[in-house]
TrEMBL record:
InterPro entries: Aminotrans_V_dom (IPR000192), Aminotrans_V_PyrdxlP_BS (IPR020578), Cysteine_dSase (IPR016454), PyrdxlP-dep_Trfase (IPR015424), PyrdxlP-dep_Trfase_major (IPR015421), PyrdxlP-dep_Trfase_small (IPR015422). This is cysteine desulfurase. Keywords: Iron, Iron-sulfur, Metal-binding, Pyridoxal phosphate, Transferase. Its EC number is 2.8.1.7. The keyword Iron-sulfur applies.
Length: 380
């Protein structure tokens, strides 16, 4: 039975062209990018070229890009680093109840340090209200953190509207764009964001590298003690080969984004149509007019997510109940609990399917058929 991977929101396979781009660096470029000799300069050139590509992809300046170990580190550096640096101006932070745990746990850490955090709710659409942001702003608000696209539902948040609200306020605006990067065009100037995080392994790049955009003039407190890498914002020797792979993944993304999204959109339509044709009862979580093409979160009445995921795995179909970082947990989704209610059955019978480059139309047909068979078996 052919394995079918419908969990691209958790991670993606490394693109073959990314592997090929990394190999010469792994084999030949071993110098420390901070060294002044030839070997160091050779590595520094790779880092600089990657940084320029990453910056141009979001309309930023290369000096505004901080290379990190991935999305979690980027989120922590943005939230904790900004809060600690500017706490003399206030200790109030606004975020949402549906953020990735990398952001939520950073906010909870700050609460223990004496910060006041407001966690805004969302409605059944899966979106936070920009007016709720406005209503909860205070003179001592120093940071607003709202993710761009929710990783469990694929629902876009009103980032541009929030950016407009904050333009004349002292609060810095951070958005976790890990799931948005690649799904939607991003221009940091148009959005009005001050900080933005991205991770390479969501876009067919290597794991262990990401970046944090930090608008010029925005000061953050480093969270790691060590050298003066990344303009003193993130200590540690840069991962040269991963930076080259990240660059190649972004280059491919910029060329193929429209085509990829059209393909994913067609896969989602086909997947849902087959479930309908098979007579499967289901509902979609979140307002689909705001959904990115590659992610769909589906509620199947009468099933329990743990048994469902086990049966999917036995049928060689990979899917998820939400964030991969909590995939081992049987607790109800905090995102769906925020959208509905903690007692709502949809928090316990919903599964996320996310499509990607290694899927083919026959995978969608076969995968949807296997899903339908499992639902019938579990609800019979």
């Amino acid at each position: 039975m052919k394995p079918i991977y419908f969990d691209h929101a958790a991670t993606t396979p490394v693109h073959p062209e990314v592997v090929q781009a990394m190999l010469p660096v792994l084999e030949n470029v071993f110098g420390n990018p901070s060294s002044v000799h030839h070997f160091g300069r050779q590595a520094r050139k790779v880092i600089d070229e990657a940084r320029e590509t990453l910056a141009s992809s979001i309309g930023a300046n290369e000096k505004e890009i901080v290379l990190t170990g991935g999305g979690t580190e980027s989120n922590n550096l943005a939230i904790i680093g900004t809060a600690l640096k500017h706490q003399s101006r206030g200790k109030h932070i606004i975020t949402t109840a549906i953020e990735h745990h990398a952001s939520l746990h950073a906010a909870e850490f700050l609460e223990k340090q004496g910060f006041d955090v407001t966690y805004l709710p969302v409605d059944e659409s899966g979106r936070v209200s920009s007016e709720e942001i406005r209503r909860n702003l205070r003179e001592d608000t120093i940071l607003v953190s709202v993710m761009f696209v929710n990783n469990e539902t694929g629902i876009l948040q009103p980032i541009r509207e929030i950016g407009e609200i904050l333009r004349d306020h002292q609060a810095y605006f951070f958005t976790d764009a890990v799931q948005a990067y690649g799904a939607v065009p991003i221009d940091v100037e148009e959005l009005g964001v001050d900080l933005l995080s991205v991770s390479a392994h969501k876009i067919y790049g290597p794991k262990g590298i990401g970046f944090l955009y930090v608008r010029e003039g925005t000061l953050i407190q480093p969270l790691q003690q060590g050298g003066e890498q990344e303009r003193k914002r993130r200590a540690g020797t840069e991962n040269t080969a991963a930076a080259r792979g990240f660059q190649k993944a972004v280059e491919l993304l910029m060329i193929e984004r429209k085509e990829r999204n059209e393909t994913y959109r067609s896969y989602k339509r086909l997947f849902l149509q087959i479930l309908k044709d098979e007579g499967i009862s289901y509902s979609l979580n979140g307002d689909q007019q705001y959904a990115v093409p590659g992610i769909v979160n589906i509620s199947f009445p009468g099933i329990h997510v743990e048994a469902f995921l086990t049966n999917l795995d036995l049928s060689n179909v990979a899917a998820s109940s939400g964030s991969a970082c909590t995939a081992g947990s049987v607790d109800p989704s905090h995102v769906l609990a925020a959208m509905f209610d903690s007692d709502d059955l949809r928090t316990r019978n919903s599964v996320r399917f996310s499509f990607g480059l290694d899927n083919q139309e026959e995978d969608i047909r076969e995968g949807a058929t296997r899903v339908a068979q499992i639902v019938r078996r579990l609800t019979s």
